[in-house]
Amino acid sequence: MKNIKEATKQFLELKQKACNELGRENSEVIAIGASKTQSIQSILKAYEGGIRDFGENYLQEAEEKMSQLPSDITWHFIGSIQRKKSKKIACLFDWVHTIDRIEVAESLNNARPKELGQLNVCVQVNLDNEESKSGIALEEVDNFLLDIQNLDNLNVRGLMVIPRPKDNDIQRLSFEKIKNKFNELKKIYNGMDALSMGMSADFQEAIAEGSTMIRIGTNLFGPRQ
Questions:
Q1: Total structural domains within the chain
Q2: Under a CB-based contact definition with an 8 Å cutoff, are residues 145 and 180 in contact?
Q3: Which of 18-32, 38-52, 91-105, 153-167 is predicted with the least confidence, judged by mean pLDDT?
């Protein structure tokens, strides 16, 4: 079995090095452990290695894990949202990265308990217009934000993207498109501060283009079985 604790420490050192080389503060970039299908024991090893944020794709799987893992973990929902499951998602998670439909945003807003405070959300952008991926087109972002800006129980923090895998230099251009849009939005919306982009294969390019959250699976847990 991969030594997840040691791999996590090594990855966090690599992230620190990348941030230093790119002129970013290490604290500006949160590494989210992409823990879909990972066991509680594996997640705990990554936690012991220094990860405090984890991203889950499936509600039922996440719910079981949350009850058995440390309470100081910040939980991010990074999968497609079924509207019927939005109530529980709104109650259990600290962040949702995959808002792309007004009805889902409204369901999350209506279900979020007031005592938990606002739910942090990102709008998912389908940069390459891939049919196999969720998200809205980049040119639809402005109107979508206008539609959801008055949902009082949501705190719209930024954008999330999973571009089609490309060569590193070309991938960086994809990230640059999102960064430019994000910078436009920050001038309009004061609370915009989250850019969720970059995974194990392209996190350095994402950091270079301003990512504040990278979703890391393989570099911590190894290739999926």
A1: 1
A2: no
A3: 153-167
Return the CATH number at 107.
3.20.20.10
CB count within 10 Å of CB 16 equals: 12
Both tokens of 182, joined, read 């994000």
Question: Which residue range(s) make up the domain with 37?
Answer: 4-221
Single-letter residue type at 188 = I
> pTM score, two decimals?
0.95
- Give the Å distances, CA to CA, from 51 to 18, 44, 46: 17, 9, 6
Query: What per-residue confidence (pLDDT) applies to 124?
Result: 97
Whether residue 78 contacts residue 97, with contact meaning beta carbons closer than 8 Å, is answered with yes
Is 35 in contact with 55 (CB distance < 8 Å)? yes
Q: For residue 93, give both structure tokens.
A: 């998670």
Cα–Cα distance measured from residue 44 to residue 99, given in angstroms and rounded to the nearest whole number: 28
Q: At what angle do helices 102-111 and 141-148 cross, to 10 degrees?
A: 30
Using DSSP, state whether 211 is helix, strand or coil: coil
Whether 36 contacts 61, CB under 8 Å: yes
- Asked whether 136 and 171 are in contact (CB, 8 A), the reply is no
Helices (H), 67-210: 86-92, 102-111, 141-148, 168-186, 203-208
User: What contacts 93, CB < 8 A, 6 or more positions away?
Assistant: 62, 75, 76, 77, 119
